[in-house]
Amino acid sequence: MRTQRTRRSALVAGGTLAVAAGLVLGGAVAANAHVSIAEDAVEAGAYEILTVSVPHGCEGSATTEVAIQVPEGIQAITPTRNAMYSVEEVMEDLDAPIADSHGNEITERVAQVVYTASTPLPDGQRDTFELSLQIPEDAAGSTLYFPTVQTCEQGETAWVQIPDDGQDADELDSPAPNVDVVAPGESSSPEQSDTADVTTETVGDQEASAASSDQMPLVVTALAIGAIGLVLGVVALFRGRNKA
Ligand SMILES: [Cu+2]
Fold first, then answer.
1. Bridge partner list, 220
2. CA pair distance 123, 2, nearest whole angstrom
């Protein structure tokens, strides 16, 4: 019981943080016009799919290549294929070998993922690139940066700027796509909300039963409407047959 309460207050605290982060991010709508990562926050140690969004070309020119640098500490990453692009993984030797989840020895990691367009992405259109990876377990409280170079038919944009300590990322012209890492249980993703609901029901039985009894009239009404519909349908069917 005690651990559940502790967990619940952690979730409430996480929710408050998420709301605070949402308020901060709410003012940064302009950032959506940049090459960026769609997810606001991920949990340390979690397996995630990050979505790199490319919303425009280079000053009007169509995009031909998107090269995404993978931050140090991410040992395994799998890019999702995209029908309009070929994808290449640029490898880098690890300082020391590690074991993967199957117990195999790993001596190198993907340092960069390069998507090359078979047909250039027009300036007025958007595309997304998904990367499946495990967030480092020791990354809570930090921000992961994925410096990305967007190459176009004419020119390129290097989305590689990383804010200095205390600097607002909004001040940067071409910030590196990034995602904040929170401690496990502090993310506001939909799966986490479900967990929060279940935990709330276990802890606060009264709240839970109050909620379900509030929902009962709706369920009964829905059933009643369904039943009336069924009866009308059957009546209509028989009337139709009688006429034939
Ligand atoms: Cu932009």
1. none
2. 55
pLDDT score of 182: 97
Cα 35 to averaged position of ligand 1 atoms, centre (Å): 6
Rounded Cα distance between 150 and 160, Å, is 10
Find the helix or strand (DSSP H, E) in which 14 lies.
helix 2-26
214 CA from centroid of ligand 1 (Å)? 46
- Between CA 223 and CA 238 the distance in angstroms is 23
**Do 90 and 184 contact (CB within 8 A), yes or no?**
no
Under DSSP, the state recorded for 71 is: P
pLDDT digits (tens, 9 = 90+) for 204-223: 444 444 444 455 555 555 66
In Å, how far are 26, 58, 83, 122, 153 from 117, measured between CA atoms? 32, 15, 9, 11, 11
Cα 174 to middle of ligand 1, angstroms: 8
